[in-house]
């Protein structure tokens, strides 16, 4: 069976070794999953989905949309485009100084509660 595990791992910015450690398998086992040599058990699919912030359906190759189910089903959150999702994932990986620059640039678009967080970051 074809899996999108490698794509999900790369989108999350993880090496095979890092993801293997997080899910509790040997890197060679993860490599086998990525190459389709053997199938991961359902509990590992769930772990990988949570760690890489993708849906299990995406990992299983049932959809090209990596958006996790909890985001897709949220009625008060509009569906994010793949670009918006990539921006959010990049923000998570950014250091504090970069996040402050992004937050300051986007400040006019934030809700009042978010503005409070920006001020706290800037102060210290």
From TrEMBL:
GO molecular function (one): DNA binding
Keyword terms: DNA-binding
Record bears the keyword DNA-binding: yes
SUPFAM superfamilies: lambda repressor-like DNA-binding domains
Domain named HTH cro/C1-type: residues: 5-59
InterPro entries: Cro/C1-type_HTH, Lambda_DNA-bd_dom_sf
Pfam families, per the entry: HTH_3
PROSITE patterns cross-referenced by the UniProt entry: HTH_CROC1
Secretion signal span: none
Full protein name: Transcriptional regulator
Native organism: Acutalibacter muris
